[in-house]
Amino acid sequence: MNHPASGEAPVASSSKVSTESCCDVQPLEDMMNYCREYAREKPEMAALWCFGIGFVLGWKLKPW
Q1: DSSP reduced 3-state for 17
Q2: For residue 11, what are the contacts with CB-CB under 8 A and spacing of at least 6?
Q3: Could you report the per-residue pLDDT of 4-61, keeping only the tens digit for each?
């Protein structure tokens, strides 16, 4: 057991190293992160996109 008083840093109990491989693709999560970052940088454009998409969907999907 490593003690901080002995001059050594404590060792983590799990030696699991997280490595990302090329096969760990998460397109939905990446797209959501991109949209959030875009909305933080340009909130006016994000609001206009939301309004435009909502307007078109509401116009095309109206029940009458």
Answers
A1: coil
A2: 2
A3: 555 555 555 555 555 556 678 899 999 999 999 999 999 999 999 999 999 999 999 8
Count CB-CB contacts under 10 A for residue 18. Answer: 4
Residue type, position 18, single letter: S
The tokens of 34 are what? 């991109």
Beta-carbon-side half-sphere exposure of residue 28 (alpha carbons within 13 Å): 0
- Phi-psi region at 50: left, alpha or beta (left = phi > 0; alpha = psi -120 to 50): alpha
- Alpha-carbon Rg for the chain, nearest whole angstrom, is 24
